[in-house]
Amino acid sequence: MTHTFDVAVVGATGAVGEVMLAMLAERKFPVRHLYALASQRSVGAKVRSGDNELTVLDLATFDFSKVQIGLFSAGGEISAIYAPKAAAAGCVVIDNTAHFRYEDDIPLVVPEVNPQDIARYTARGIIANPNCSTIQMVVALKPLYDAVGIERINVCTYQSVSGTGKEALEELAAQSRAVLSGQPVTSKVYPKPIAFNVLPHIDVFLENGYTKEEMKMVWETNKIMGDPSIRVNPTTARVPVLYGHSEALHIETREKLTAAAARALLEKAPGVVVLDERRAGGYPTAVTESAGRDPVFVGRIREDLSHPRGLDLWVVSDNLRKGAALNSIQIAERLVATFL
Ligand SMILES: NC(=O)C1=CN([C@@H]2O[C@H](COP(=O)(O)OP(=O)(O)OC[C@H]3O[C@@H](n4cnc5c(N)ncnc54)[C@H](OP(=O)(O)O)[C@@H]3O)[C@@H](O)[C@H]2O)C=CC1
Ligand SMILES: N[C@@H](CC(=O)OP(=O)(O)O)C(=O)O
């Protein structure tokens, strides 16, 4: 008989939570009882997981001793309070927020890169799910790193508004309607209009001039790859795309790697699909390839004209799937297969 598990999804009414619920059903995760939790505002609302309709319960009064796994995506402040409580009640928390990611005794896991770190969940009962932009980048870079090493990564991101949550999806739609009908544009979620615009700003500004989203890509790449010597220089930008983050990566490897060799490595890498034809449309985009799909897509693979060991790549993935819900569920799948 298949072993089944009781699971709570925290933030079940949100952009990530909805995808979590859908993907648990899609991937046939061995769920016995599934609980959808959110704030008091949503209590009694209905959400779906495959064919099942669930009634949303209040996180604040939920008894976590009823579940073995908690998938958290309701923001860092919520995780700070409830993840330790859930863990103390015997629930293993897989946390999508940035709150615990940089603590030494909390593993930060991308299953294609450092699955071995899942075993360290026993220290605190919490496993951290990395930042969406970091996840797709390290999935694409791991096979190249293993082959020739990586000294430095320059990365520019083009991140969709779904990374900010449901309100941002609504803001982009409302602003687009306003612009196209000649009405005034109002901004609430972002500091400047996002429709028909690009904002070089995600998360808060830090003292060194980088934003926190950019520093997450630095700190998390070093921790997940287990190599603090990799230097990472990111610029993260928000673009008027609904689903799917895109990234231009410019890497400097330790030993020379040709574009052909990189392509061959990526073609057999887990979780990666290469779409790299040197013709119009022979590359992946957020709208046409990644939105609603699982892989990390890689294209535009070429040798950097300006550096003897430089390589350029274009990497696209669905930020709500591999960048959040799918990565968390893949962690849960490995957790139950080996440890629970
Ligand atoms: N790994 C990653 O890269 C990503 C991580 N995230 C993390 O997930 C979080 C949620 O993102 P997203 O789904 O896009 O955001 P949304 O704004 O779409 O949803 C927020 C969710 O959190 C719930 N929530 C808010 N306040 C509370 C509360 N006090 N108690 C219980 N539940 C609460 C909301 O419930 P209600 O409807 O009742 O308000 C809703 O379900 C982010 O803040 C971030 O930390 C998000 C995207 C990617
Ligand atoms: N910052 C990401 C989404 C997110 O919530 O990331 P994090 O979990 O690292 O805060 C985006 O805006 O696209």
Give the topology, please:
Blueprint: E1 5-10, H1 15-26, E2 31-38, E3 46-49, E4 52-55, E5 57-58, E6 69-72, H2 76-88, E7 92-95, E8 126-128, H3 132-148, E9 150-159, H4 166-180, H5 212-225, E10 231-238, E11 245-253, H6 259-267, E12 272-274, H7 286-290, E13 296-303, E14 310-317, H8 321-338
Parallel strand pairs: 1-2, 1-6, 2-5, 6-7, 7-8, 9-10, 12-13
Antiparallel strand pairs: 3-4, 9-11, 11-14, 13-14
The chain binds NADPH dihydro-nicotinamide-adenine-dinucleotide phosphate and aspartyl phosphate.
Binding site for NADP(+): 13-16, 41-42, 162-163, 319
Family: Belongs to the aspartate-semialdehyde dehydrogenase family.
Subunit structure: Homodimer.
Secondary-structure class: alpha/beta
> How much helical structure, as a percent, in the residues?
25-40%
Total strands: 14
Estimated share of beta-strand residues: 15-25%
Chemical compounds bound to the protein: NADPH dihydro-nicotinamide-adenine-dinucleotide phosphate, aspartyl phosphate
Order of helices and strands: EHEEEEEHEEHEHHEEHEHEEH
Tally of separate domains: 2
Average of pLDDT: 97
CATH topology of the largest domain: Dihydrodipicolinate Reductase, domain 2
Broad shape: globular
Named CATH architecture of the largest domain: 2-Layer Sandwich
Q: Which strand order does the major sheet show?
A: 5-2-1-6-7-8
Keywords: Amino-acid biosynthesis, Diaminopimelate biosynthesis, Lysine biosynthesis, Methionine biosynthesis, NADP, Oxidoreductase, Threonine biosynthesis
Organism: Acidiferrobacter thiooxydans
EC number: 1.2.1.11
GO molecular function, one term: NAD binding
